[in-house]
């Protein structure tokens, strides 16, 4: 075959495919040769296996394919198969009149690409070129892989390097493969799982929200298959959410200032304030402190960092400050949260929690501020109720109003919590979901949990447990829940402006009542609240009921 | 002359058909015939001559193997039979192939007398086939000499 013929043959593949045929049976060999010629292959024949080996070794690129008989006098057909496959890495087809499957298996095990039975038909020979294509593709894949490994870079680099060494003949195939591989590389989409988000928050906290750059965060996170771009987009979302929170906090503050005078009224009237908008002032004012405090936090550290600090302080305050905590933010915000949080999942609760966390400092502020009208009435009520309770940690109170607050708005609102979509999108939702799932377990912030506690367990136990859970939840909360808290804070503040006013009064009273002791009362209130939802239209009736209940509360 | 050619062709066709019907030839022979074209006019003749040469060789080997005074190496005999089987199946020598299958079983059973008998049968069979195909080729020659074209016999 001349060079020209060779080139032509190669271009017209499978026409001109170079086949080496080995068979000691001359008859069969002659027939095979003719058949292969009929398929337009180029054929070289020999009846000796040794000759065949020498021929193929002589020039490793001389043949594309080898067809060899199994039974040969000078060398075992399988041995030849192995040698040719190993040294020359050529596809070898076995030929035999043995139809016994064990021979076929032996051929396969020794590396044969195919096994043909004599008498060979031309139809079968017309398709043998597929083995050549398959083998060459396999070789390319292998080289790509080894390139990628040796360079120690991403697959893209390996593929690119391989691209340079392509044969002109196989250029198209390689391109296809490379494109497919690149396409595959682009496919994986980064999903921000809870763990990843926690790592992200930890990294942001470590670096500082102001110094948070995607590159540093990526390094700190140390997660595989995460690119700088993924982190950058996630960070952007995070920052937007933060901004929203602070803006809403500001709004809340403004509203609180506007309505501050209502607080006292609502608190005094207790249930009467049910229909008032007073709760907002009370809550908002308290929340104001909280918001202010909250705002402090972001400036100094990320929310991730805030949480542990606040949580650690919370118990202290709870146990030390007596009734002050009651005045703390939690309740109004909680109520705010729950009232109309149609779209607020329990993250809103989380935000309440955050406000709760802030409460310790807040409470102190509130207490010191004693000028704040909201606090004094509550204090009075508290002191009255204090007869009932002494050692009960304020945390219980927190839990109480929380639960009650939730209950007030009925199951529907509680349930809506879980439908909320936070600004952080999937991550928060994931948190919400996970929290939701954890309802039945410990360390749950979800309002539903506390509400459930109240409803399900005995009064005293429930409150206590709820409180414990709150505390535990605070302590155990991971960075992820911070997002929820942040989000919920935002949403809470949004919602608080509206309906909460009425609730707040009731809530305020409830909050001020000593928790454990008032378990029964709380339950009673809870029932009232639940009923109230259904008796919404009968305002007078409800009002009277609440008035009675409040009077009942006030007169222990 | 056309009548003569036609007659010869008819004769040829009938002869071929009889060979198939008597089981001397099978579809592989047809395939073999189809491979013959203007570029290789003697392809079939060439292959068949190769085949018969192999037959002679193999039968001789087997006879020698079976004729051993000591223990008979049946594996050797079996190898030869196997090869003969492959060749005969490739050319379409149906009867020979059938005999080879029997022969192989006898070899595996190490049935000396059976092998000997079978070998004799193989010997007779391939020689018979050889003679018959020779006649066929002669007919073809006559047709060509008469100016006609060897007809393609459709075996159905």
From TrEMBL, chain B:
The record's annotation in Pfam families points to:
Hpt (PF01627)
Its annotated compartments are: Cytoplasm, Cytosol; Nucleus
Cross-referenced SUPFAM superfamilies: Histidine-containing phosphotransfer domain, HPT domain
Q: Which GO terms describe its biological process?
A: cytokinin-activated signaling pathway; phosphorelay signal transduction system
Q: Which residues cross the membrane?
A: none
What cellular component GO annotations does this protein have? Answer: cytoplasm; cytosol; nucleus
* Location (main, coarse): cytoplasm
Gene3D superfamilies (alphabetical): HPT domain
Q: What is this protein called?
A: Histidine-containing phosphotransfer protein
Where does this protein come from, organism-wise?
Brassica napus
